[in-house]
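#structure-requests
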Amino acid sequence: MAVVEIVSFGYLHDAPPAAHLTIDLRDHFRDPHVSPELRDMTADDEPVRAAVLGTPGVAALVLATASAVEALASGPSAGVITVADGCAGGRHRAPVFARALAELLSDAGHGVMVRHRDLDKPVVRR
Protein backbone atom coordinates (compact mmCIF):
# COMPACT_ATOMS: atom_id res chain seq x y z
CA MET A 1 0.00 0.00 0.00
CA ALA A 2 1.05 3.56 -0.62
CA VAL A 3 1.46 6.61 1.53
CA VAL A 4 -0.81 9.37 0.24
CA GLU A 5 -0.69 13.06 1.14
CA ILE A 6 -3.86 15.01 0.38
CA VAL A 7 -3.71 18.81 0.42
CA SER A 8 -6.86 20.92 0.13
CA PHE A 9 -6.38 24.54 -0.88
CA GLY A 10 -8.04 27.67 -2.24
CA TYR A 11 -6.96 29.09 -5.59
CA LEU A 12 -7.79 32.62 -4.39
CA HIS A 13 -5.14 32.44 -1.64
CA ASP A 14 -2.06 31.17 -3.46
CA ALA A 15 -0.84 28.91 -6.24
CA PRO A 16 -1.73 25.23 -6.10
CA PRO A 17 0.74 23.09 -4.19
CA ALA A 18 2.98 20.68 -6.11
CA ALA A 19 1.21 17.34 -6.57
CA HIS A 20 1.03 14.21 -8.69
CA LEU A 21 -2.71 14.81 -9.15
CA THR A 22 -4.44 18.18 -8.92
CA ILE A 23 -8.24 18.27 -8.82
CA ASP A 24 -9.90 21.62 -9.60
CA LEU A 25 -13.37 21.72 -8.04
CA ARG A 26 -14.20 25.32 -8.99
CA ASP A 27 -16.03 25.16 -12.30
CA HIS A 28 -18.05 21.98 -12.12
CA PHE A 29 -19.51 21.94 -8.61
CA ARG A 30 -21.72 24.56 -6.97
CA ASP A 31 -19.87 26.66 -4.41
CA PRO A 32 -21.48 26.69 -0.94
CA HIS A 33 -20.12 30.24 -0.67
CA VAL A 34 -23.06 31.44 -2.78
CA SER A 35 -25.48 30.38 -0.04
CA PRO A 36 -25.46 33.09 2.66
CA GLU A 37 -26.25 30.53 5.38
CA LEU A 38 -23.15 28.46 4.44
CA ARG A 39 -20.72 31.22 3.47
CA ASP A 40 -19.10 31.71 6.89
CA MET A 41 -19.11 28.00 7.73
CA THR A 42 -16.35 25.57 6.82
CA ALA A 43 -15.95 21.89 6.04
CA ASP A 44 -16.01 21.36 9.80
CA ASP A 45 -19.75 22.13 9.75
CA GLU A 46 -22.26 19.40 8.85
CA PRO A 47 -24.42 21.61 6.56
CA VAL A 48 -21.36 22.30 4.39
CA ARG A 49 -20.38 18.63 4.27
CA ALA A 50 -23.94 17.66 3.33
CA ALA A 51 -24.12 20.33 0.62
CA VAL A 52 -20.80 19.32 -0.96
CA LEU A 53 -21.26 15.55 -0.72
CA GLY A 54 -24.83 15.88 -1.98
CA THR A 55 -23.71 17.67 -5.14
CA PRO A 56 -24.14 15.46 -8.21
CA GLY A 57 -20.78 14.23 -9.45
CA VAL A 58 -18.74 14.78 -6.29
CA ALA A 59 -18.94 11.17 -5.07
CA ALA A 60 -18.05 9.89 -8.54
CA LEU A 61 -15.02 12.20 -8.67
CA VAL A 62 -13.87 10.98 -5.25
CA LEU A 63 -14.06 7.40 -6.54
CA ALA A 64 -12.27 8.29 -9.78
CA THR A 65 -9.51 10.09 -7.87
CA ALA A 66 -9.10 7.08 -5.57
CA SER A 67 -8.78 4.89 -8.69
CA ALA A 68 -6.09 7.20 -10.06
CA VAL A 69 -4.21 6.97 -6.75
CA GLU A 70 -4.49 3.17 -6.89
CA ALA A 71 -3.01 3.24 -10.42
CA LEU A 72 -0.09 5.38 -9.26
CA ALA A 73 0.41 3.14 -6.22
CA SER A 74 0.67 0.05 -8.44
CA GLY A 75 3.70 1.47 -10.23
CA PRO A 76 7.30 0.61 -9.34
CA SER A 77 8.00 3.84 -7.41
CA ALA A 78 7.62 3.70 -3.65
CA GLY A 79 7.34 7.43 -3.03
CA VAL A 80 4.57 9.39 -1.40
CA ILE A 81 1.66 10.14 -3.76
CA THR A 82 0.46 13.71 -3.39
CA VAL A 83 -3.08 14.76 -4.33
CA ALA A 84 -4.03 18.44 -4.23
CA ASP A 85 -7.65 19.46 -4.52
CA GLY A 86 -8.71 23.05 -4.75
CA CYS A 87 -11.77 25.25 -4.77
CA ALA A 88 -12.06 29.03 -4.73
CA GLY A 89 -11.40 29.78 -1.06
CA GLY A 90 -10.34 26.41 0.34
CA ARG A 91 -12.97 26.36 3.09
CA HIS A 92 -15.85 24.32 1.62
CA ARG A 93 -15.53 21.99 -1.38
CA ALA A 94 -11.82 21.20 -1.24
CA PRO A 95 -11.57 20.13 2.42
CA VAL A 96 -14.80 18.09 2.22
CA PHE A 97 -13.49 16.36 -0.91
CA ALA A 98 -10.10 15.77 0.75
CA ARG A 99 -11.67 14.14 3.79
CA ALA A 100 -13.92 11.90 1.67
CA LEU A 101 -10.95 10.82 -0.43
CA ALA A 102 -8.84 10.22 2.67
CA GLU A 103 -11.51 8.01 4.20
CA LEU A 104 -11.81 5.93 1.04
CA LEU A 105 -8.05 5.50 0.66
CA SER A 106 -7.56 4.74 4.35
CA ASP A 107 -10.29 2.09 4.18
CA ALA A 108 -8.38 0.57 1.24
CA GLY A 109 -5.29 0.23 3.43
CA HIS A 110 -3.22 3.23 2.35
CA GLY A 111 -1.44 5.46 4.82
CA VAL A 112 -3.07 8.87 4.47
CA MET A 113 -2.08 12.34 5.64
CA VAL A 114 -4.46 15.27 5.12
CA ARG A 115 -3.54 18.94 5.27
CA HIS A 116 -5.97 21.81 4.75
CA ARG A 117 -3.80 24.72 3.64
CA ASP A 118 -6.51 27.40 3.63
CA LEU A 119 -9.39 26.07 5.75
CA ASP A 120 -8.75 28.52 8.58
CA LYS A 121 -8.19 31.58 6.41
CA PRO A 122 -10.85 34.32 6.33
CA VAL A 123 -13.73 34.09 3.88
CA VAL A 124 -12.80 35.67 0.57
CA ARG A 125 -15.40 38.36 -0.09
CA ARG A 126 -16.31 38.39 -3.76
